[in-house]
Amino acid sequence: MGHSGTSLFLSGAGLYKARALLDRLRIPRRRDKDATLVYEGFERNIIMAMALSVVVPVKDEAENVGPLAREIATAIAGETDSEIIFVDDGSSDDTSAALAALKSEIPSLRVIRHAANLGQSRAVRTGVRAARGELIVTLDGDGQNDPADIPKLLKELRRDGASNGIGMVSGVRARRQDKFSRKLASRLGNGIRQWLLKDGATDSGCGLKAFRREAYLALPYFDHSHRFLITLMIREGYGVRFAEVNHRPRMHGRSKYTNFNRMLVGIDDLLGVRWLQRRFRGKAEAKEI
């Protein structure tokens, strides 16, 4: 993982050691609002840590990001310590400009842009690694996931306390607002993956998920891994819960996926994840003595 030893993506005790190093070297820590994300890595993780980050990967969704960002802000208004992170995955339209224009309206909004299109899994990973929140919610940027369901997922994730062993709550879309061909392909795909992976997932393609940041960062990463977060969470020893969520029709733009390209990458990925399952020796229970 790039930058794992320094800057933005440190976690735990390493962050405090890094801050102490800055003090010893007398390196000034910038606090102005225009400081870059990487330069302020230590500050964002130590001083500006918060409870919740909502991460939204987007690609060519200029017409959707404004309404969606406002809906998310409304949905998490009860979370006093939160932020919204949109990751623009190399859009070729005005998505970044539309998001930048919202920053004065939504102070908690952060916008990160990939210089090139790297895919949804990489965009999610970028957002989670940059997030200040201990809990993460992800949802798709096309507006079909309903932000009003976010509190429901968070309540389920927090149920029974922080030590409940639950790493993720995954949404299950009720009354999907998609074409029949897509729903049929999804049903077939979920059936095949359940036969192979046996992870209990009936709607692995739902982008609305709530999980613990530390749990996500413990997972192996690969392109298209966002489709297998449930399996990977279980593999690492975390519990996964499911919650029924709303699903809405797309109002603007076009889907970036087709049934055919999903099938092509899906077969290869399924076999790879099945291999990961077989090669795992269990969660390590370790303590310092």
What name does CATH use for the topology of the largest domain? Spore Coat Polysaccharide Biosynthesis Protein SpsA, Chain A
Assembly state here?
single chain
**How large is the share of residues in beta strands?**
15-25%
Radius of gyration: 19 Å
Widest β-sheet, arrangement of strands: 3-2-1-4-6-5-7
Structurally, the number of domains stands at 2
Q: Which structural class best describes the helix and strand composition?
A: alpha/beta
Categorize the overall geometry. Answer: globular
Average of the residue pLDDT scores: 79
What's the story with the biggest beta sheet?
7 strands, mixed
Unreliable parts: 1-44
Helical content class: 25-40%
Beta strands, count: 7
| Distance between the amino and carboxyl termini | 29 Å
SSE series: HHEHEHEHEHEHEHHEH
